[in-house]
Write a structure and sequence with these properties.
Strand content: 25-35%
Shape: globular
Helix content: 25-40%
Number of strands: 15
Structural class: alpha/beta
Radius of gyration: 18 Å
Strand order of the largest sheet: 5-4-1-8-9-12-13-14-15
Low-confidence stretches: none
Distance between the termini: 12 Å
Largest sheet: 9 strands, mixed
């Protein structure tokens, strides 16, 4: 099985509520590394994104430990890699500060990597691809019925002059969520996404009417909900939160959720089982800080699903 992963790389600096800090690769790295640990060595992950020229060689060298990652879609650009500072505050939404956001990934870099089994688009910065590029991707793959999974992520974030990010409605949200396999967002993003301030069920009905099959809403330690198009009716699947001995760091949990869902769905074609699996793996990510221990997710590999019937 082969999956193309599109989204911006970040260099993360994470500031926890106890004033501890950690740093490492973030953004699309969480998705790519999670997939590398969940899929088999004979599967292929094809990331498509740019890396600043000063970081490129070290990053490509770091990925060499993953035999199932094809780095041919990773390109070098002048200037620094996107840097993100994340500040977690007790009882409040985290504060995100993004510097040096990379230019959108051009279609000419993506198009050669579309002959795959699934596409995972993670809007890490919110500027990862343009809406026109997504439309072109949809047109390229629609005849092959290729599933596109999109994590809305930072698509609903604006950016201030001091590089801090803020939530705002997305005027063209229907066009973004049109004709894909699944859209993912957390419950706050779901609340803020539509200018009409649709409730979750209404948002799901509108989304699934766009010829999209699933809307995933993640809820942190309370689990997740999938709204599924079941023969033109909306079916709700709630996955309960997973109890952890200690929740350490929520950074990257959404990226891991997307990776785990796609890893399972590619093999099984089972939406319900894939959503449940994603919920379990994302909870495991919350048990460690940053991305350095992400290879521990390989313990879930055997549960990533059996090959679906062809």
């Amino acid at each position: 099985m082969t999956i193309t992963v599109i989204g911006h790389l970040c260099l993360d600096m994470i500031h926890q509520t106890d004033r501890s800090t950690s740093s490492g690769y973030g953004g699309i790295f969480f998705t790519v590394a999670a997939l590398a640990n969940l899929l088999h060595e004979d599967d292929t992950i094809i990331p498509v994104f740019g890396v600043g020229k000063d970081d490129y060689d070290a990053f490509i060298g770091y990925l060499e430990k993953y035999p199932n990652i094809d780095t041919s879609g990773i390109y070098k650009f002048n200037g620094p890699t996107n840097q993100v500072a994340l500040y977690y505050r007790e009882g409040k939404e985290r504060l995100e500060c993004s510097k040096f956001i990379s230019d959108p990934i051009p279609l000419k870099k993506i198009r050669p990597k579309l002959g795959v089994d699934m596409i995972l688009l993670n809007m890490v910065s919110g500027f990862d691809v343009t809406l026109d590029t997504l439309d072109e991707i949809r047109m390229e793959v629609r005849d092959d019925h290729l599933p596109i999974y999109m994590d809305v992520h930072s698509l609903s974030l604006g950016i201030n002059e001091d590089f801090t990010r803020f939530h705002r409605p997305l005027e063209q949200w229907r066009r973004w969520l049109f004709m894909i396999h699944a859209a993912q967002m957390n419950e706050y993003e779901a609340h803020i996404l539509s200018p009409e301030k649709l409730d979750e069920l209404s948002l799901a009905k509108h989304t699934l009417a766009l010829n999209t099959k699933v809307l995933h809403i993640t809820r942190g330690n309370r689990g997740s909900t999938a709204f599924i198009d079941d023969h033109k009716h909306v079916r709700r699947l709630d996955c309960e939160g997973v109890e952890l001995k200690k929740a350490v760091d929520a950074t990257g949990c959404g990226d891991v959720f997307a990776a785990a869902y796609c890893a399972h769905y590619m093999r099984t074609g089972d939406i319900d089982a894939s959503a449940s699996f994603a919920n379990q793996v994302a909870a495991a990510k919350a048990g460690f800080a940053g991305s350095s221990p992400i290879d521990s997710l390989s313990s879930f590999r055997q549960f990533a699903g059996e090959e679906k019937n062809q």
